[in-house]
Write a structure and sequence with these properties.
Chains A, B: Keywords: Coiled coil, Cytoplasm, Phosphate transport, Transport. The structure is a homodimer of 217-residue chains. With 217 residues, chain A is mainly α. Chain A contains six helices and no strands.
């Protein structure tokens, strides 16, 4: 019974890693939509998000079936609870990518991002996408080195967001609405990155048994 | 054994409800800090958030002890997993209140919110606080009427946020930085409200066994 549970649990973790990769695709597509006012890319991002939500619902249902049908011991339950929690993180990542895609759709055919900020958002998009890929790798490998890489990437996102605020607070000729859009978009990327870090922290916890202190933010 | 587990589980749910009330206090204090540039209120909000995080860590630890020491059946486990998940929602509510308080601190002694927007933010603060109180009531009562009230309140928050965007997109003489601040603050209140709704939805699910369809956002 325990072997079977473990096999099913490993399959659930693998599904979770695949969903983190779907979140990576969703934010990549959303960033293209944003920077190029590309409606087709926006639609692909939304579709990735819908697929992600559908498969998360199935994963959660599987997790509850595992609870009901097999009698997992406490350590396995801990992993199972973590899988359910991380599912919520990945769901948010998909929603945040969708918010970015929606912003591109709402302003189309205008480009939301002023030229000056394109490099900042391009880099934010690249790092965020890489973080989702790395979170998936950490889930698959349970390797602490994969998890540790996320911290440095998160620092990059924070730095880019500060650069964004400096631009808005400086000589900003693009008006209030564009400033509000840029601030919210920066927030979406930042939160996407935070969720990837949360996945890495949970993997570290499962491997080492030591909770990562979550900084009050 | 099962009776003991249920007693402990009920205690955990009660703790969770208390923490939702702490989140209500945190957003009330943060709103005072925001509207009146009141540093002492900001500090009280931060302190509520710190207390909330500390008690959530303890609650999570208790939940895992329950898994380890008692042999819960599947339906009880489902409640336990829900308790852990809702803990994450309440943690976010505390963080969002802290973000609002930090914004007030960062801009002090200036008031962040232009006069014109004070009524919008005052009402957002009141509704958000009430939603946390109502989420706590839903957790304590497991009453679907308590849970249902949250949906209407959430509509109010969405309406207020639209009003906020209309102001920013209209004749806005306050500059780009103030627009960015206002947009982010509106987002914090909206997310706070979303988490309260998620708590209510989970309560409905525990009571009725029917998952509330989460709208893709």
């Amino acid at each position: 019974m325990r072997e079977e549970f473990r096999r099913n649990l490993a399959a659930a973790e693998d599904t979770l890693a695949g969903l983190a990769e779907t979140a990576a695709a969703a934010i990549e597509q959303a960033t293209v939509a944003l920077l190029e006012a590309d409606l087709a890319a926006a639609e692909r991002s939304q579709e990735s998000n819908r697929a992600l939500r559908q498969r998360l619902t199935e994963l959660e249902s599987t997790a509850y079936d595992l609870l009901a049908l097999q009698a997992p011991v406490a350590s396995d339950l801990r992993v199972l609870v973590t899988v359910v929690r991380l599912g919520a993180n990945i769901e948010r990542m998909g929603s945040l990518a969708a918010h970015i895609a929606e912003t591109a759709e709402r302003r189309h055919p205008a480009v939301v991002i002023p030229d000056l900020l394109v490099p900042v958002f391009r880099q934010m998009g690249e790092v965020a996408q890489q973080m989702a890929v790395d979170a998936a790798a950490a889930l698959r490998s349970r390797d602490t080195a994969d998890a540790a890489r996320l911290e440095a990437e998160d620092d990059t996102v924070d730095r880019l967001r500060l650069e964004l605020f400096r631009q808005i607070a400086g000589d900003w000729p693009h008006g209030a609405e564009a400033a509000a859009d840029a601030a919210l978009l920066g927030r979406y990327y930042e939160r996407f990155a935070d969720h990837a870090v949360a996945i890495a922290d949970a993997v570290l916890y499962l491997v080492t048994g030591v909770a990562v202190e979550v900084a009050a933010e």
